[in-house]
Amino acid sequence: MAPRREQEIFSATLGLLAEKGYEGLTVEGVAERSGVNKTTIYRWWPSKAALLAAALIEADVLTLDPPDTGSLRGDLEALVGQVAALLTRPPAADVAVAALGAAVHHPELADVARRFFADRLAREERVFERAGRRGELADGADPMMIMDLLGGAVWLRVVFRGLPVDEGFAAEAVRTVLGGVSPERPRDLD
Amino acid sequence: MAPRREQEIFSATLGLLAEKGYEGLTVEGVAERSGVNKTTIYRWWPSKAALLAAALIEADVLTLDPPDTGSLRGDLEALVGQVAALLTRPPAADVAVAALGAAVHHPELADVARRFFADRLAREERVFERAGRRGELADGADPMMIMDLLGGAVWLRVVFRGLPVDEGFAAEAVRTVLGGVSPERPRDLD
């Protein structure tokens, strides 16, 4: 399938998800909105969940461009900013919050969420490889743990506490994870 | 209202939420299941959202008993374990995941989620007050940030990645937040 047509299908899929929720998302609806025949869509993606998984991972709107600022601190602050934007700025926020909310309620979407986060971690790992080469990471530091702490904090702050996440939050979250909160060591490396 | 009767209403509210979702939760249903008159329920809680907020914050099933192990590390590991249990062990997990999932989709529940997390943080703050008195916290360390990093990581790992969260996870998450991942300082304080 031509990449441009594929993006049109993904865009229709995510638009319908954001507007109508997972219950209201149908392959018929995607066919109608994208102007692509329903049987063509089914030939590429055998189910609604498969189509949604592909759209979440490959749609341009949710693409993660791993930052390369020259320092682990800068890269992590940029990643926190990307997660915050994903959860707060339309149209990505409507899609991301609808998809992640749906994953909680629909067991058949659990695998979609898993694949989405595995894909993002694979991209984010470049940040940690570069940091490792620059000697900025302690031995045994775990990229998944670092991203779960930072990404989870953004989710909790934005979605559950309803509080804003700004550059000050990103700097403080990253400072905490890089330096820790124990007094035995100075917290700020700058 | 008698505390025991109140707990019966809360239990009916959370049970219906877990079984039928927020859409399927009605004050009629709560009245039927708890055997308490509908008008009595409305006299105490003027809306479905108000009833759910009270149930989430005051029901015994979700009560948070802040740990007091004698060290910040021990207390934080216990708190991570409590959050993990809340999100994985029935019946609390069915309630918590349904409530938090619903908060994503229903703007009128945003305030309920905010109150739930504010209430929990107020309880958790005792852990940080004791740690501060013991000299275990760096100046300026922010309890809300620490809890959002740790609680968010559990949420992301359990709900979105579908991965288990065990004692090893709790220890590693707490070690990361206490000691940081920068190599300038040894990671393990033990």
From TrEMBL, chains A, B:
Keywords: DNA-binding, Transcription, Transcription regulation. Pfam families: TetR_C_11, TetR_N. The keyword Transcription applies. It comes from Planomonospora sphaerica. Residues 26-45 bind DNA. This is TetR family transcriptional regulator. GO terms for molecular function: DNA-binding transcription factor activity; transcription cis-regulatory region binding. It comes from the Bacteria. Residues 3-63 form the HTH tetR-type domain. The keyword Thylakoid does not apply.
